[in-house]
Amino acid sequence: MSVSVRRATDADAEAMSAVLIASISRLCVADHRNDPALIAGWTRNKSPEGVRKMLAVADTALFVAEREGVVVAVGCTMGPDEIGLNYVHPAHRFAGASKALLAAMEQALREHGASAATLTSTATAHGFYRARGWQDAGPPRMDLSMPGYPMRKVL
User: Is the dihedral of CA 67, 70, 62, 85 positive or negative?
Assistant: First the structure.
């Protein structure tokens, strides 16, 4: 089964919300340690309405990775040179969706003139990004009582 990546639309909001919440809740345990308050804080803006608000932000581009027409991963770029999200549904982890999504977002940033990009990784995704050429760009920063790892990649 191949993965295709495209820009997200308002019609994708429900599916995107479901992917984001499932990914955070079930795959990011190394970050939230199953703490209900941390999960609630992290997923608060990931409702369908929250996703629609993200879609409306002028300098943010949301993308979805699909397999057989089903949204399996969600990502976004922010501003001219930042990856803001890259989450995969637990049922599709290690099947190439996040990798395809990241490659498409990196290409979108290149097409908009970026020669390098930044992101802040979770502990869960840190190794994923390092394996794809991203490098640590400073010490971890605390956000929602969880460390975020600043990273950078020359595109």
Answer: negative
Compute the distance between CA of residue 129 and CA of residue 54 in angstroms, rounded to an integer: 23
pTM here is 0.94
CA distance 109 to 58: 15
Range of the domain at 11: 3-154
* Polymer length of the chain: 155
Cα distances (Å, whole numbers) of residue 86 to 65, 124, 128: 10, 12, 11
Q: What is the pLDDT of residues 17-61, one digit of tens each?
A: 999 999 999 999 998 999 999 999 999 999 999 999 999 999 999
**CATH number reported for the structural domain that contains residue 56 in this entry:** 3.40.630.30
